[in-house]
């Protein structure tokens, strides 16, 4: 029965049918109310609808329903330091929210890299770097992000102070989080964690869970277009150079490239020497010569090949990194590619995000197993292959092979590398390890 039919019947004063119409009208009102209260319809929540409640519903039932349906949020401090640290910190914040059964309020990232002067940290909204809607749709049922505009009462906050110090153990931290799952805190719309940056929180989650969050991080188009430009430049210039030295029929199109995350700058060398002493492991620091030799000996690598050197800016003035590569390996860095300007336009965080993307999409990736950047690239590549149902994850048989040049492999080459997704925490794979699972 449709509405016009209804009016018609009422016009003729048919008592029974008009009663039926009233029933239908009531059902329709009930459905509208339900729809308005459901969170996914929150965009309906304008003034008009509030008036609707006032007319049709008692205030007490309204409050009760709101209590039950109200989204609860978790708020975390601004996320700081380098891209990888920020990604890990963000994942930790998401997984904490998941544990507390709350929606994570979209945190601020930091565009700049000031370690100590926190007041100089340039906050940048998460959605200026990663796609917000896409994150929520990819991570649906796992973790969700919310916007501050979704919060109904910003003063309805409980502050959770993270413990610190040596006596604040992993177990105590976990106990504290478990306590906050308690219904006692359900009354608070927001739990705000104060104190330490999420990167420094304890690591309670398996690698798989981190991988699940990272998967949902898709760069905004503006940034991924910049990465597209770099990648096509690598292939274009690479192809031109290769044609100069090779008969045309030997050139594969598009030209494959090997990305080498070459960590040889001074800061890293000091850091890695210290690490070698402390951990009594000798295979952390690789010299320029060692990296060149190992990359030159990758078993099964088809040459000629383009080598993209992902290096720190300080090294762009050091021409020696382009010299000494094996024949048929054509090395390029940002300067030689003529893409320095593309990077310079952006703050530190975005530059790293572009570099990360270029390494991620490479045909072959070679990094240092003690670098967090390299480790996250390999994790991402491994996850993508697992998702595809790939069988071979190691060596040239893999769709997106990765290697670690600091560990020696076959025939004086680098060691094949994949992420062991069964690890029970991220520590096992991200803060430096020589377990590369291949
Ligand atoms: C988490 O929230 C959902 C929906 O709000 C609810 O169904 C579920 O029981 C909650 N889980 C816990 C452990 O509180
Ligand atoms: C917001 O929450 C605070 C703290 O719970 C409470 O005192 C205040 O009445 C709330 N305001 C509204 C408009 O509900
Ligand atoms: C370091 O490792 C070497 C061999 O791997 C061993 O002989 C030495 O005792 C170790 N030193 C320390 C301080 O653990
Ligand atoms: C992966 O990690 C799990 C858990 O730590 C371990 O049992 C397993 O041996 C590891 N596998 C490889 C190939 O390293």
From TrEMBL:
Membrane-spanning ranges: 12-33
Organism annotation: Forsythia ovata
Keywords: Carbohydrate metabolism, Fucose metabolism, Glycosyltransferase, Membrane, Transferase, Transmembrane, Transmembrane helix
Signal peptide location: none
Family (UniProt): Belongs to the glycosyltransferase GT106 family.
Protein name as catalogued: O-fucosyltransferase family protein
Any one GO biological process: fucose metabolic process
InterPro entries in the record: AtOFT1-like, GDP-Fuc_O-FucTrfase
GO molecular function: glycosyltransferase activity
Pfam hit, one: O-FucT
């Amino acid at each position: 029965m449709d509405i016009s039919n209804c009016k018609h019947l009422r016009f003729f004063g048919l008592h029974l049918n008009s009663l039926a119409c009233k029933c239908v009208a009531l059902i329709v009102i009930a459905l509208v109310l339900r729809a308005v209260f459901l969170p996914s319809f929150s965009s309906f929540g304008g003034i008009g609808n509030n008036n609707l409640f006032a007319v049709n519903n008692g205030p007490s039932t309204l409050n009760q329903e709101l209590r039950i349906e109200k989204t609860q949020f978790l708020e975390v401090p601004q996320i700081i330091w380098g891209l990888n640290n920020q990604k890990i910190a963000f994942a930790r914040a998401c997984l904490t929210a998941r544990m507390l059964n709350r929606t994570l309020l979209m945190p601020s990232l930091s565009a700049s890299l000031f370690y100590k002067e926190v007041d100089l940290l340039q906050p940048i909204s998460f959605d200026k770097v990663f796609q917000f809607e896409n994150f929520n749709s990819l991570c649906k049922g796992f973790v969700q992000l919310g916007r501050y505009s979704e919060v109904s009462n910003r003063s309805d906050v409980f502050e959770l102070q993270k413990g610190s110090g040596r006596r604040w153990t992993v177990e105590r931290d976990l106990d504290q989080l478990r306590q906050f799952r308690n219904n006692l805190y359900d009354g608070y719309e927001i739990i705000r964690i104060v104190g330490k940056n999420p990167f420094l929180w304890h690591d309670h989650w398996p690698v798989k869970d981190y991988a699940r969050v990272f998967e949902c991080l898709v760069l905004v188009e503006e940034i991924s277009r910049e990465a597209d430009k770099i990648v096509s430049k690598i292939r274009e210039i690479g192809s031109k150079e290769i044609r100069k030295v090779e008969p045309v029929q030997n050139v594969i199109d598009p030209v494959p490239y090997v990305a080498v995350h070459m960590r040889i700058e001074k800061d890293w060398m000091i850091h890695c020497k210290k690490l070698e002493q402390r951990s009594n492991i000798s295979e952390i620091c690789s010299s320029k010569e060692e990296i060149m030799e190992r990359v030159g000996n990758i078993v099964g690598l088809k040459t000629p090949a383009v080598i993209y050197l992902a290096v720190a800016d300080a090294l762009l003035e050091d021409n020696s990194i382009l010299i000494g590569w094996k024949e048929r390996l054509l090395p390029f860095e940002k300067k030689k590619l003529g893409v320095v300007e593309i990077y310079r336009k952006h703050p530190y965080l975005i530059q790293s995000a572009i570099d990360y993307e270029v390494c991620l999409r490479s045909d072959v990736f070679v990094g240092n197993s003690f670098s967090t950047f390299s480790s996250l690239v390999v994790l991402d590549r491994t996850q993508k292959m697992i998702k595809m149902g790939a069988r071979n994850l190691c060596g040239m048989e893999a769709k997106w092979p990765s290697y670690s040049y600091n560990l020696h492999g076959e025939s004086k080459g680098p060691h094949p590398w994949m992420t062991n997704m069964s690890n029970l925490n991220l520590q096992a794979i991200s803060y430096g390890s020589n377990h590369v699972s291949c």
